[in-house]
User: Which sequence fits this backbone?
């Protein structure tokens, strides 16, 4: 089992940057594929980015490709989401998630979730 703690959210102007972090407990972090999702009011969680266990593979939603970068540091049990050129439509609660089995863009394949961190982008 793994516990995830999201941090790094905040208020930023359009065009600005933020870096989200997700710290994981336990000694098996490197055995999990990791992902970032986001949710806006009244909507389901949308996929943002995923990274494989070793970090060798990454996948992005089309809406963030070229602006966001997912990375992980297995020695520090941490996954990051660097967000650049932020837009008002990026405003959401962002969640990191861990998947035991599948490298996936589907939220249903993720077993553990962080508590979420609010990102607000003003125009």
Assistant:
């Amino acid at each position: 089992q793994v516990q995830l703690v999201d941090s790094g959210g905040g208020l930023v102007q359009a065009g600005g940057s933020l870096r989200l972090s997700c710290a994981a407990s336990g000694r098996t972090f490197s055995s999990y594929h990791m992902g970032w999702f986001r949710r806006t009011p009244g909507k389901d969680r949308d996929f943002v980015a995923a990274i494989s266990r070793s970090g060798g593979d990454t996948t992005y939603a089309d809406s963030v490709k070229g602006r966001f970068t997912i990375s992980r540091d297995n020695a520090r049990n941490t996954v990051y989401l660097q967000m650049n050129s932020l837009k008002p439509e990026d405003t959401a609660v962002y969640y990191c998630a861990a998947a035991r089995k599948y490298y996936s863009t589907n939220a249903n394949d993720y077993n553990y979730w962080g508590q979420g961190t609010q990102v607000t982008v003003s125009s």
